[in-house]
Amino acid sequence: MSYAALPRVPAFDLTSESVKDGDALKPAQTSKRFGVAGGKDESPHLSWDGAPAGTKGYVVTVFDPDAPKADGYWHWAVINIPAGVSSLPAGAGVQGGSHLPPGAFQLKNDAGFPGYLGAAPPPGHGPHRYIVAVHAVDVEELGLDAGASTGALVRKLVPHTLARAVITGHFERR
Question: What is the pTM (predicted TM-score) of this model?
């Protein structure tokens, strides 16, 4: 199951000092691990506002729907972010989650580790979109553990998402 399976829901505000909607990603948000020159694998700064009443927590995801696999590529997933939190600093996606709020944790990305993986589309594959989303959910905890798959996350998000805030950046390797 992919990100595209998520139903439409109301929107709220999302801003970032790291990613501007519609713009190319900065080198910091690209992948040194996967050989992008200047890449740092640094998760973006995110700040959100205006989630609906009834929001009990948040989930943050970064997803590439243009990856050369049928269900896209998950770069980051953070779950169980408390409702009182309204931002994450740049670099919050380090392995180990030391910069995340208490109770929040990262699921494994499609590279197989819990943390943020920067953009690294195959050279010559064309531009890829990176959907950075904050999902306002109606539960404090999604009932997933750190070993859960992103498919399991999507299945939990479908019935629990009240609203979603999105910024989409892009990146291409030639």
Answer: 0.96
